[in-house]
Write a structure and sequence with these properties.
The protein is α+β, with helices and mostly antiparallel strands. It folds into 2 domains: about 5-115 and about 285-290, 3-Layer(aba) Sandwich (Aminopeptidase); about 115-265, Aminopeptidase (3-Layer(aba) Sandwich). The protein is built from 11 helices and 14 strands. The longest helix is centred in the middle third of the chain and has 15 residues, at about 160-175. About 40% of the residues are buried.
């Protein structure tokens, strides 16, 4: 089975979405938009078998990701030994616990804090209440004072070109060509936005100043309670643009949700500090797992 992987493709999206709906824990990592966007950077491949979608990362080294589907009814004692040839990363803790129960003594788990996804109270980000969010509120008020009432617009197909143009400008300013991580993110944004209409639950919004797009946010419905945020960018020189984009996206795009999932920090200290300033309510906790070979007699 583990030799039958093929590159993640949109041709099999219906099969993937069917299994995604059965997955008990919806991590932003495993949304189809994320897999497709980062497919080239990580060399992501998949294989559909035994009622699950198995995911393999081939770059820079071979590693498995957690399988997607109905975790509760999988025959883990029979299936897990097939993952023993490489580590399994980004494994939600709920699944890791199931594996430990299925293969006692053969599931080695180590915490991977950099892969934890940040979960925020949606209403708090939409309203920025009290002293805890005083600095964020000041940035939003400064934006409004400088540029007037925010011109917030939900994304539609016609605006995708503006998003890609803003991303290109942002990349030039931040010299993406000199940064492997920013180059990879730029490719992911272009891949997802160029196939915008093929993803279920994808949503987005933008801010304009004098009919110029100055910020955008792209998210996705992960489940009935959670809206994930894939990408968020603002132009340099527009004070408070990120805080305003964040707040209004939570207020309007997130109106029907209780939580916002704003992805992981990848152990980047500056990014971790920035995410913590928004006061996460919880995390999608994930671990690194090794399936050990059975002891020989």
């Amino acid at each position: 089975m583990m030799h039958s992987f093929t590159p993640v493709s949109l041709e099999q999206r219906a099969d993937y979405y069917a299994l995604w709906q059965q997955t008990p824990r919806h991590s932003l990592d495993y949304s189809l938009a994320n897999l497709w966007g980062w497919q080239g950077h990580y060399g992501l491949q998949w294989h559909f078998a035994h009622g699950l979608c198995w995911i393999c990362q081939t770059l820079p080294v071979r590693q498995y990701w957690a399988p997607v589907g109905d975790w509760q009814h999988a025959d883990w004692p029979a299936l897990l030994p097939q993952l023993a040839d490489a580590p399994v990363i980004r494994v939600p803790d709920e699944l890791a616990a199931l594996w430990q129960e299925a293969l006692p003594g053969r599931v080695q788990i180590s915490e991977d804090r950099g892969q934890w996804e940040y979960l925020y109270d949606r209403e708090a980000l939409a309203t920025l209440p009290g002293n805890r969010y005083h600095k964020k509120k000041n940035h939003v008020n400064s934006y409004i004072k400088t540029y007037g009432e925010p011109d917030y617009r939900p994304l539609d197909d016609a605006m995708v070109e503006d998003v890609l143009a803003l991303q290109d400008t942002w990349c030039q300013w931040h010299e993406c060509e000199n940064s492997p991580s920013l180059r990879a993110e730029n490719e992911a944004i272009n891949r997802v936005l160029s196939h915008w209409e093929l993803f279920e639950g994808l949503t987005g919004a933008s801010l304009y100043v004098n009919d110029q797009m100055v910020a955008f946010s792209v998210g996705e419905k992960l489940d009935d309670n959670t809206l994930g945020v894939h990408f968020e960018k603002g132009l340099n020189g527009f004070k408070g643009v990120y805080q305003t984009m964040n707040c209004l996206f939570a207020r309007y795009a997130g109106a029907d949700f209780q939580r916002l999932n704003r992805a992981q920090d990848l152990d980047e200290e500056g990014l971790r500090q920035a995410k913590m300033t928004y006061l996460p309510a919880d995390f999608v906790r994930k671990s690194r797992v090794r399936i050990l070979e059975a002891a020989s007699c």
